[in-house]
Write a structure and sequence with these properties.
heterodimer, A: MetI-like fold, 13 helices, B: mainly alpha, MetI-like fold
Chain lengths: 332, 349
Amino acid sequence: MSQDLLSAVAPPAKREITTKPRFSDKVFRGVVTSGALSSLFILSLIFLFLAFQGFSVLRTEGFSFITTSSWQVVLDDAGNIDPTATVFGLGAMLVGTMLCAFIAIIVAVPISVLSALYLNFYAPAFLKKIMVAVVDLMAAFPSILFGLWGFFILMPSAEYWAKLLHHYLGFIPVFQLDPLVFTRSPFVAGLVLAIMVIPIVTSVSREVFSQTPLDRIQAAYALGATRWSMIRAVVLPYGRSGIVGGAMLGLGRAMGETVAVYTVLNVVYQVNWHVLLGAGGNVASMILLKFGEAGPQEIKALMAAGLILFLMTLVVNSIADFIVARSGGKGR
Amino acid sequence: MSTATLMKPQKPWQASTQQRLISASVFLVAAAISYGVVAATPMKGKLAYVFVFFASLSVLDFFFHLVTRGISAAKDAVARTVVAFGICVAVLPIVSILATVFMRGYKGLHFGLFTHDMKLNSVSDPIAQGGLLHALIGSTILVLVALVISLPLGILTAVYMTEIRGRFMRPIKFLVQAMSGVPSIVAGLFILAAVVYPLTKSYSGFVGSLALSILMIPTIARTSEEVLLLIPNDLREAGVALGGTQWRTVAMVVVPAARSGLVTAMILGIARIAGETAPVLLLSGGGDQVNANPFSGPMGSLPFYIWKSYSVGTEESITRAWAAILVLLVIVLVLFISARLLSERRTNK
């Protein structure tokens, strides 16, 4: 009797225990992996298509596409493009891009580092929360808003500061200018870019500063350091590479900015080293300017310019990511 | 009752009343100096007050602390003032931007703005005529289409980086970072080169959305990654221990637990692209009438409307631009604040 019962409720057959993923998991992993590879896919497509469209221009111009500074489309009598006289050289706009971006970084980095120090080490808790939200909010503002604000509100003040700089520091070559035109200069564009970049640099530096090992901070205080000497001895050395990385990230953002620069800057195709002179441009704003009335050949040149801009920002951003990733995570 | 022996609790780290009084008076003196200096010299403007105030405050602080407490305390006091100056300079523009937009945009607001398009009006017409209905509808459609494309891709990327953690994790992390740095005009040019010239050959809302989703994917991916990393590992282990496959664990346990965070990621993605101008200028054109079909015809959008009104440059058109900016800013503010509230509720739980 009991024998029968036992055989009736016999344990189920032994299941196979395996680490091999089931079919559903294989599908899941496949879908997720291919979705995650979309960023690789899109980035390489951007490179391929811009290179494909700009190839003919890049081949005819060669290396002088970057080094020379004239951008001329010459038509012959029949209205076709004259290939010998037409030149595309991006040099002037590359100079302008770097100039505006560097002004932005020079202005933004000290302010951002001070703000990050304030938020991490000086601000009372309630103020810190509000300020962090406000600075983050600023990063979410659309760029056209910065452009219009820069044009209508910042420009009059910035012109005044530019005149001061010219008056008192005019002996330095970059502050010289020949026709006294202060409006819409790279200086103003750089200030607008600086304001757009401040939230980025601030949040990166804040992140890095907040990772400063607490024991070192407390050790500095225990040795009798004031708050400032603690910051100088512990926080700044620890966070230095993070600041550099944040600055590079900001540089990348400032180089690629289009609409704000276009609104504020007087985009003229010429090499302009004088930051206070109202002429200049950057690659992105030039693309926007020339795009409207560009013929097929010029569009190809603009695509090539876009490719150069893409590669530039990619390099700067990669270096920045590398530095920031290396600076975080150690200590504590 | 031997209260005399009980010490009163002391807080030596807090400033005493006397110290507070002294620092307040230093503050007042600095304010007075800034007022006097600005009045006496040819310097002008509100910013001059701020600048002179902080300069005189740091000088006063330095000498006061030098005399009372020595050189390192004096340096510390100056550093405190300079750091406070830094945050003030960082926050001043945002205050100015908000104030400007509300003051100037307010004049251009009227109810018809939300019920009329610009089919029968030009931007230089009196402000009471016409509106930005077409721009609002266009922007909404652009954002929704971009969202449909980039939300799955962004979340899949985040799930890969937090759940699967496979061979490609480091390169993908790097690529997502790199993608978030792609300038918006390059995204526009790419869609132009890859889709518009070879395939569609015309403006439409859809190609604009494609460019916007390139900008949106990295934002969503990075925010969702942060959110998914916050989900405790116990949940995943519990799911697997109960016999769930990885697919079931992620879909039934991890993602529902992170739901509000993923919504935050979505909102931040929308806020990122809502005001993006350059790709819209290149790709979606800008009609003056309501066009609800993203696949054909130019489609208006808020940034394009602002751009167009600003470029015309008459008084009415610039008022229109400020009004549209106000609408855009309010949308961004609402999105941003709701994202904040959602993420705060999550962290408090």
